[in-house]
Amino acid sequence: MEDAIEPLTTPEIGRARNALFRRLLDLIAMPASRLAHQDRHMVSDILLDMLFHAEESEREMCARRLAMHREAPKRLLRYLGQCSFQVARHVLEGNEGYDACDLREICMTGTADHRLMIARRKLIPESVCEYLAEFAELNSVKEMLANNGAIMPEQAIDKLVARSRDDKSICPLLVERLEMKPSHAMAMFWWSDAATRRKILQRHAADRLEVIDTCKDVFELAAAENWSDPVARKALQLIERRQRNRAAIEKSPYDSLEDAINASALNGMDSELAQEIGYLAGLKPVTAAKILSDKGGEGVAVLCKGTGVKRDFLPVLWAGLRRPLESEEGETDPVFANVAETYEILTVAKAQTVLRYWNWSLSSAFKPAMMQSGYSDAAANEETEFSTAQRTARLVFGR
User: Could you report the per-residue pLDDT of 99-116, keeping only the tens digit for each?
Assistant: First the structure.
């Protein structure tokens, strides 16, 4: 008889816990004017301990309730942000109570969905952008780059430019960022598509007029010292107004740069002629090889415009590289058409800047890896780069 009565007298389990959970949540959601700071944090500690034992639906209810409550204690918000994405999405989307450390920690411990939601936030702090740039999935990186609220430090741009070599789809997004510097853009140029290259040349090529005018007397000082200071000599290479190498013309078997271009059209481009064109244009062999072997061809337009080669020689050099001027339908080849248009939109001064930046950056101590070992190591490697470029040219042009 007692066994039959016992279920009727056993109290229902869970009602008190559920009621307490809701009361504590009500207290946390109160405005600061109604609940003391100390009470809010004490209540938060109790609620957080209960959340550890709560059902997923209860955690999601808590996250929805606190979605826009920036006064909610950080520890509670951080826990909800690190829960499953079904729970975390409510607070990660718009709650302004998170600081940079909170968001970075959630990025590190969360899933790809967590990082994607953070990349879409209205404001993304610098340290979070730096983490996403290096470790986040490609779709999260794209969302961050398209987000005007993302505060991108230079370290993040450095990492994204390096990453863009393999993930080329982020190049068009990167070039739109105001944080991009000429050093970033000129490096990314070589693996970007035609539209991105056009923007790089239009936005990041400078005319250097003020720089040249300010430093013009330094050239006389360097010449008086017989250009014996390697640091000054390398820096002045970027500022120098004249592009063609007059000394090389005197030693060359060709009368001019144009004469060498004509020879390429008649006899084809080989490694020796490619290097000779580079010398006449005032370029290192590695720079010349890079330009002449580039599939996009915009570098050829920059070379011709920067050295003062008339537009009539552009198709001559293109033919010397054994690249088509016309399509099978008899119309202008689209790749060459883009190259010709690039030639037209550039000024001589800006094309010279691009050429000199490419040439200077190859052995510049500005490279992060070289900055660690010092400028002297960079200068010592210059001869190695020349010999490497010669081998590259032979591989590219086949003879």
Answer: 999 999 999 999 999 999
Sign, CA torsion 322/253/244/218: positive
Q: Is the dihedral of CA 173, 179, 184, 189 positive or negative?
A: positive
Region for 156 from its dihedrals, namely left if φ exceeds 0, alpha if ψ lies in -120 to 50, beta otherwise: alpha
Give the model's pLDDT for residue 250: 84
Q: Distance between CA atoms of 90 and 118, rounded to whole angstroms?
A: 11
Residues 29 and 31: their CA atoms lie apart, in Å, by 6
Terminal alpha carbon distance of the chain: 106
**Predicted model pTM:** 0.80
Torsion angle, CA of 209/215/221/223, rounded to 10 degrees? -30
Rounded Cα–Cα distance for residues 307 and 279 (Å): 12
Looking at residue 385, its pLDDT comes to: 43
DSSP codes joined into one string, 18-52: HHHHHHHHHHHTS-TTTS-HHHHHHHHHHHHHHHT
- State the pLDDT at residue 13: 66
For residues 83 and 63, give the distance between their C-alpha atoms in angstroms, rounded to a whole number. 10
Do 47 and 25 form a contact (C-beta atoms < 8 A)?
Answer: yes
Tokens of 384: 């190695």
Residue 207 pLDDT grade (very low, low, confident, very high; cuts 50, 70, 90): confident
Q: Are 157 and 145 in contact (CB under 8 A)?
A: no
**What tokens appear for 278 in the block?**
């580079």
Identity at 218, one-letter amino acid code: V
Please say whether the beta carbons of 360 and 255 come within 8 A. Answer: no
The helix/strand/coil state of 150 is strand
Q: Which residues of 183-214 are buried (b: 16+ CB within 10 A; e: fewer)?
A: bbbbbbbbebeeebbbbbbeebbeebeeeeee
**Encoded amino acid at 279, one letter:** Y
Q: Taking the CA atoms of the chain, what radius of gyration do you get in angstroms? A: 31
Q: Smallest Cα–Cα separation from 67: which of 77, 52, 55, 57?
A: 77
